[in-house]
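To whoever is on call:

I kicked off a structure prediction for a single chain this morning and the downstream step that reads the tokens threw a length-mismatch warning. I double-checked the sequence; it's 270 residues and nothing unusual in it as far as I can see. Pasting both halves so you can look.
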Amino acid sequence: MNEKEKEREEIEKWIEGDESAAEMLSRVSSVRPFVFPPPLHRVPLRVGNVLELVGPSPSAKTHILIHAAITSVLPKPYGGLDHLVLFLDLDCRFDITRFSRSLIHRITRHGTDSYDRTLYDLCMARFLYVRCYDSFEFLHTLRTLHCRLEKEKEVHGVGVHLLMIDSIGAFHWMDRASMFLSQRENNKKKLFLQTVSEAVVQNIRKLLQVHPMLIMATKSVIFGNIYSKASNDVKGNMEERCSKNVTRNHQNFQYREYMPSVWQVEVFYE
């Protein structure tokens, strides 16, 4: 029986549902190969998902990304996933020394006090880093990622299965300021937040169609007390107006979602 006949037989078995539990678990594991350290181990992640890590600064969002990236680039005998990682640094504050030390610590956990330099170089080469300074560089990076991912796959023999964005709202306030400034100058093209966000979402969706990946994006929030700036009467009106966009915890703290709705709806629910 040649390869085509075997493949056809496997497809027919899958259509008829004729597979054992062991075969089913093996198939599901190949589709969802992401098993990250805590706290991400509680989330059923798979290719095509977009995970948003939200919290104030500092709340260990980048730290979680670092350990997830290390898990991805490490070989399977070391508890890794043997994949490439693409890290888009929009905050421009990523500390590569911190990543290097964490990687060495993970490697030495499986061996002696001296780490394997060859393994270290392999893992560092699998960590692809791109820094963006504004929304235009971010959009240009997303539009040209297809060619880069293809080249990296040819060089390393494995593809990028994890895309990290730290942080997705880094340029929001700059774009918001640019929008108001551009309204005063008719000779310049206006920069609208909705347009930028739509372009980002469209490019991410196109990228996922060609390169199935898991996307992890961090987002900072600013918390405030709902009782600190308004009286009881004004507070009631504010709660009524913001009830759809505000999330509060048990300590009466709130934060407003500042990212445009296209990011929340199109990325997570399309």
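Update from on-call: the warning came from a stale cache, not from the record. Cleared it. Sanity check on the structure: The first helix runs from residue 3 to 16.
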